[in-house]
Amino acid sequence: MGRASSNAIQAVQQLQELLNDNAQITIELPPQGLGGVLAPKPTKLIVTPTPPPKPGPADRPGGAIADLKGFNDLKPDPLTARTPMQFVELMKDYRIWAGEPSYRELVRRSGKAFGASSLCEALNSPRLPPEKLVRAFIWACSNSESDVQVWVTAWRQLRMRHKRAQGEPIASVAELHTPDQRRKTG
User: Looking at the record's lineage, which domain of life comes first (predicted)?
Assistant: First the structure.
């Protein structure tokens, strides 16, 4: 192989390193002339972009992978919680079920709807966390609207039950209207 070919190959290798395997480089050479005495010179350099690899389950940007049929009981069910403390424990279990993303990763996935310290405090408190945090946390864990709906329903159920247990009256819809609005609605 001649010096020109060696230099061309070296240049292509350097170019390939710069492209970080994001493209394929092809060199077209003319047929050898004069019995191979002269080193062939490249006539064409082709750079073809390499498509990015398809993301696998480990590369998914959030979102838990569903359990196999018959193993649905692995996913924590918030509707079974009877106390705020049980609800918080189920949130911790749900995070584990979703692959145990770090608090910072959950903050990122939620679009910074909460801070890592707020999440840490909520998951280590016996009190019912704010509904907004629950909604954002479940979305960040699973990327599932149906899961968010189940968790928010469970949160509402517990919040209302907890409010009644403390003797706080729950206003009826009629009590929320002003006297003028009550006359209009009958």
Answer: Bacteria
Asked whether residue 64 falls in the same domain as residue 151, the answer is yes
Q: For the whole model, what pTM was predicted? A: 0.57
Structural domain that includes position 126: 59-165
In a domain, 89, yes or no: yes
Query: Could you tell me which residues come within 8 angstroms of residue 177 by beta carbon, excluding any fewer than 6 positions away?
Result: 185
- For 160, 170, 186, the CA distances from 177, given in Å and listed in that order, are 20, 14, 11
Nearest-CA neighbor of 142 among 66, 71, 90, 59?
66
φ/ψ of residue 89, rounded to 5: -60, -40
Asked whether residue 185 is assigned to any structural domain, the reply reads: no
Residue 71 · residue 61 · CB < 8 Å? no
Number of domains within the chain: 2
Helices (H), 98-130: 103-109, 116-123
User: Residues 16-38: what's their mean pLDDT?
Assistant: 61
One-letter amino acid for residue 87 of the chain: F
